[in-house]
Amino acid sequence: MNDNRKPTILITEKRTLRSCISKHDLSTFNIIRNHDPREVFSLVSIHHPDLIILDAEMDEVSGYDLLRTLKSFYKTERIPVVLVAEITEDVEPCLALELGAIDFMIKPISEHLVTAKINNYIKIYHSLLLLEEKAHYAKEMNPNTGLPGNMAISRYITNALRSRKDDVVVYADLDNFKSYNDKYGFGRGDEIIKFTGGVIASALSEALGDTFLGHIGGDDFVFVAPADEVKEIANNIIYNFDQKIRQHYCEEDKASGFIISKDRLNAIQKYPIMTISLAGVRLIEHPETTRYEVIADICAEVKTYAKTFKNSCFYMDRRQGEDFRKKYDMAFSTVT
Description:
Layout: E1 8-12, H1 15-22, E2 30-34, H2 40-47, E3 51-55, H3 63-70, E4 81-85, H4 93-98, E5 103-106, H5 111-140, H6 150-162, E6 167-175, H7 177-184, H8 186-205, E7 212-217, E8 220-226, H9 230-244, H10 251-256, E9 258-262, E10 268-272, E11 275-282, H11 292-306, E12 313-317, E13 328-333
Parallel strand pairs: 1-2, 1-3, 3-4, 4-5, 11-12
Antiparallel strand pairs: 6-8, 6-11, 7-8, 9-10, 12-13
Helix pairs in contact: 7-8, 8-9
């Protein structure tokens, strides 16, 4: 559905039906007329109609049979269909409705009535599509942050790769989050995750180009931004994160600069205040791939390297050095 175009109506009719429908003022619609029911499916694929009007009785095939076929295929079952017929003993309005028609009209058709009905049916159809779209995206949203999840992330980055956009994919991960979660509890941990998503979203909102933010899960996020803006965006994220993260600690932990918690071996350890690591990959530097998984693997490798440093930092993949350290260009790192 495209809200900027006229709604499209596909009318499959006998010659006698054409004269009846054409006298009405349907100038607000894009009308596609057809006299061969065998062409309906190809016309649907080409024009994506918002409504189909069928003549109940045609020479080649019954309108009822065509309606039954339309409602049996996934790509056409949701399109509203109106059957139009002459007043005869063969008229079967109940059958038409049982087969899935949204209405059954008897000729002659009132001009004002048919226009009003068509408008209503198209509005209902568009509302249904919008609800389905929202439901589809709701399934992909992370329940904690409400941000797009893995499927949406994969789809966006794959499209960016195919379109050869000069974007940078950045993985964001929190350092020392597990120890915070262990001490303060999952509820406070969820607050940190929402806080982090908000910090990233705020920085992206100031960008001039198109951006995207997704939540992989846990304390892992991914965002996409134009290459010429990504360093400034990352700088804002790091600055605001480092400035505000201490608000989520108790006074004792803020004063000491660390928390005391047990590690995976049940040994007591000191863990510094959380920092954020950002790992970026510029898409145009990888023209050999259109696969999101390849970019994800590179980001994960860069992120592993970035997390070896104690401060919040942003690293861009360069892949030009002789050793691992020279493969990466550190854009900046904050000092706490």
